Amino acid sequence: MRIAVYAFDGVTMFHLAVPRMVFDEVARQGLGDWTTVLFSDRPGAIRTAEGYQLADVEGPDAAAAADVVVVPSWFDDGRVPSDALRTVLQEAHWQDVTVLGLCLGAIPVADAGLLAGRQAVTHWQAFSTLSDRHPDILLDRSVLYIDHGDVPMTR
Questions:
Q1: Res. 155: pLDDT tops 60
Q2: pTM of the prediction?
Q3: Which pairs count as long-range contacts for 49-55, CB under 8 Å and 24+ apart, including other chains?
Q4: Count of domains in the chain?
C-alpha cells in the first residue's frame, strides 16, 4: 500500500510525523509492504514550522499512485488550496482512493468538493472558516472523527 502525505512550507513536524508513524508501523512490524511518501504542489524541498528543511518531497504525481492521500494539516489562515492540490484530491476521490483530512486538513478536502452535503469535523479553530465557506457541510462539534469510508476526517 502506498500512502501519500501532503507537505507544505510551514507544516509542523508533528503533523507530518503522525501519519508516517501510524502507517509506517505496519511495515516496521512486518505486517505488510506499506510505503509513505511526502508530496507537495511542486517537487523538491519544504521548510517546516520548526525550521527543518525536508528534501526529496515529490510532486503531485506521487499521489496518483497512492492508495491513501493524507492532508495532515493546513495553513492557519485557512487559505484556499492551490488548483494542483484540489485536482489531486478530486482525482484521488474519483479513483476510489481514500482521502484523509486531519484537523485543519478538512479545509482543502472541503474546498475540493469532497465534503459537500456530508457531515464533517475539523479543529475547533476552523469551524467558522469551514462553515462560512461551505454552508452545505454539516459540521459536528461533538465528535473527534468521522469516517465516510472514502473520506475520513479527525479533529
A1: no
A2: 0.91
A3: 49/10, 49/11, 49/12, 49/13, 50/12, 50/13, 52/13, 54/7, 54/16
A4: 1
